[in-house]
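Quick question, first post here. What does this chain look like in 3D?
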Amino acid sequence: MLTLQQLRGDKELAIKKLAKKGVDAAPIIAKIEELDDARKALQVELDNCLAEQNKAAKEIGMLMGQGKREEAEERKQQVAALKAKSAELSAQHEETSAALQAQIVLLPNFPADIVPEGMTAEDNLVVKIDENYSELPENPLPHWELAKKYDIIDFDLGVKLTGAGFPVYKSKGARLQRALINYFLDYNTAAGYQEVEPPVMVNEASGFGTGQLPDKEGQMYHATADNFYLVPTAEVPVTNIFRDVILDEKEFPVKMTAYTPCFRREAGSYGKDVRGLNRLHQFDKVEIVQLALPENSYEALDGMVAHVEGLVKSLGLPYRILRLCGGDMSFTSALTYDFEVYSEAQKRWLEVSSVSNFESFQANRLKLRYKDSNKKTKLAHTLNGSSLALPRIVAALLENNQTPEGIKVPEVLVPYMGGVTMID
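> Answer (accepted):
Ran it through. Tokens below.
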């Protein structure tokens, strides 16, 4: 959530920044200014009313002591009227503050200065490409046909049990899932990330804290009886560990990693773009999260990008790194780098990770703060990245490593597969 200072300190700059994300912020900021001015005026009136009330209340005892009962009764009536007025002003102030908050949360985060202009994925900037392509057999199969051929993923059974987008992994397919999760977690913990195992259902406050609510409410599975939400990513519960927490600056950076299943209601169009593992409603993902001091957060982002790049590279997959344009970024992000791996059977790039700096946007919602060396309380910066999302990694691994004998298991995964080198 943006702060009032960010929006009112330089209104024209705020409007310009948000236009980069495709948002016409001028009418919303005008409404915010109107509500903020009204809130301040109500606060002044309320403070004056309370001061007058306290003064009159003190005079009652003094007048009673002087035997001036009639004047004391007048003061009592005055105090009663002031109490009623204070209650009314307090209610108006609360209502205006809520309306102000409702307007502020409509606005996305400011994009960083280096975010490219543009509104669609075609405007994203390729900052690096590693074209480590494989030599495949003639007429290579897409992963959904390989899954059926080797009986390792059953999409039809998933439809029977739940619905489309909920595959069942079997035999070496299930083992591959487990191997990737364990490898990713080990890779992250070796780099200093503390492993945590969070709940996969969160409350509304957690969804608001990281920006999924109210922006993505329709994309989340909602358990209405308890008002819990199934997590769309481990970022939500892990970052919320520090909701309403004040850290000391010596505790930074905070680095955490977690595996969770992820649940997303987002509906895709029909066709190759969503076939097989390309888009699911339930999938596995390992996440990395960092809390950083504001002056160090972009250095932390560069480190996270390098970390994820090393992980993708270790799997032997061709990949590219994109810096997302303003219109293709998430609601909460200030700067995002996407990782895509190349699917040689589908002849297309598949997104497998987003690594983002949210600056203070999430921290303001979370009330995640720290005390600096002067004991001044400030907002921290939050960052997160997929390290990695499994479905499209699995799709690329199956397609890019297919041979006439079977599917080769990447060398780094062989120990996690119990020595299995081939899926056949």
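Residues 323 and 337 are 5 Å apart (CA to CA).
The mean pLDDT is 95.
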